[in-house]
Amino acid sequence: MENIVLNSATLGFVISLLAYEIGLAIKKKWKLAILNPLLISILLVIGVLILFGVDYDSYNASAQYLSYLLTPATVCLAIPLYIQLDVLKKNVVAIMVGILSGVAASMGSILAMAMAFGLSHKEYVTLLPKSITTAIGMGVSEELGGYVTISVATIIITGVLGNIFAESVCKLFRIRHAVSRGLAIGTAAHAVGTAKAMEMGEVEGAMSSLAIVVCGLCTVVGASVFAGLL
């Protein structure tokens, strides 16, 4: 099986898409938050690789085209933001303060946990970009000298958990304002969380899309500052 994957330019790509389609079908049928399509597709791909003895490098070589789509997919999130431009203009100060607070809280918590658990500097900077989209997070991790593959894993896990628990957390803390809900989800759980925000409403989706971009830019700058604190 590994030879087939190595000799195919797109088999890994096809396996990934099929796994995600299966995840979507399962979520649509049972409608449970825990049945996140991305989480299911990850587990299915891991299962296939283990079952057929295919190593990650072989799989990644034929699935790398998915990575090329990350940046344009992120840029496309500007469309719902443009539709809700009036909402942005009316709440611009609150929006910027909220996003900056979220970025500071994210990196501050990583710093605190790194100190508490005795992480090395390399392990610490690996976790700093956990709440920004993969397209930006990979570059931040590489620039700071972290483990890029582990950064990708933490970014995905953060997004999946955000997607699963976003609505429940908003209900628990009685966050009812659409702008607040969208900003919180986008700042904490990037693009995967934004998918959930879009399900919750148009304003939530637009604000979450904005949060992804601004949070990413702020983290690029802030991560360099926080990296020097440990």
UniProtKB/TrEMBL annotation:
The chain crosses the membrane at residues 6-26, 33-53, 65-85, 92-119, 144-166, 210-229. It is found in: Membrane. The keyword Hydrolase applies. GO terms for molecular function: hydrolase activity. It is a multi-pass membrane protein. Keywords: Hydrolase, Membrane, Transmembrane, Transmembrane helix. It comes from the Bacteria. It holds the Pfam family LrgB. Its main location: membrane. InterPro entries: CidB/LrgB (IPR007300). This is Murein hydrolase (TIGR00659 family). It comes from Blautia caecimuris.
